[in-house]
Design brief:
Two copies of one chain form a homodimer.
Chain A lengths: L1 H21 L1 H12 L8 H8 L3 H13 L3 E6 L2 E6 L4 H20 L1
Antiparallel strand pairs in A: 1-2
Helix pairs in contact in A: 1-4, 1-5
Chain B binds a DNA duplex (30 and 30 nucleotides) through helix 4.
DNA sequence: TTTAATGGTTTAAAAATAAGAACCAAAAGG
DNA sequence: CCTTTTGGTTCTTATTTTTAAACCATTAAA
């Protein structure tokens, strides 16, 4: 079945994204960034307060979130402002994957 | 904002599911189960062949997939037949979460 | 041009996850 | 009742992930 080969790729391409959003610490970071409706972006130290983690730990999780294209940041002097990416293409990709899987399961019922 | 508290819960409730489907070995198991369009279910030894892993390793991953409500199984004597759950409610929950997140991001633009 | 602030990186430790060998239990078949 | 098949569960080891202390580089401020 040709479809399943495609599905396998869709799945593999989303691994990083899924692992990124599966972790509860990173979920807390994402929520904090969603809460920032002023949309200025949050700094690393803002996030250490939210999560009770050290700066290197936050930095590490932000790196994972950046690699998964979930967050982006801008520099202003020495300050880094993190925010959720404006177009997270993985969201739509994941939605399509879920539809694919549902379709196959329903077909086999 | 009341919505974000709800979003936080939706996220937390899906952690197990997201971690389950983020792992590439477990993705391989899911694909194999999707390929079983006869829908008889696959046995542990069928899956060891697909993935080149030991039986305890497969057993371990199946446990995680069961806890995430992704797979189910039936016994026939000593034989266990694993299959994808017929109604994976987490699929719809995740779809709604993605919509929620998109909505908030778009609103803030 | 010092001094302070900001924050990434490296390093090392701790914790969690994954893996297979060995073991155990249950059911089928002789 | 013994033997075989099947497959879950320890148990131990290896790997990966997470964490914070220490370190370093950059920019702003004094």
């Amino acid at each position: 079945m040709k479809n399943l080969e495609q599905l396998k790729n869709e799945f593999a391409n989303l691994s990083e994204f899924l692992i990124a959003i599966g972790d509860e610490t990173r979920q807390a970071i994402i929520i904090a960034l969603l809460e920032d409706n002023a949309c200025n972006g949050l700094r690393v130290n803002d996030l250490t307060e939210v999560t009770d983690l050290s700066r290197p730990a936050i930095s590490h999780h932000l790196k994972i979130l950046k690699q998964a294209h979930l967050v982006d940041f801008r520099r202003e002097g020495t300050k880094n402002y993190y925010y959720l990416s404006h177009n997270i293409s993985e969201i739509e990709q994941l939605r399509q994957l879920l539809t694919h899987v549902s379709d196959i399961i329903d077909k086999e019922q």
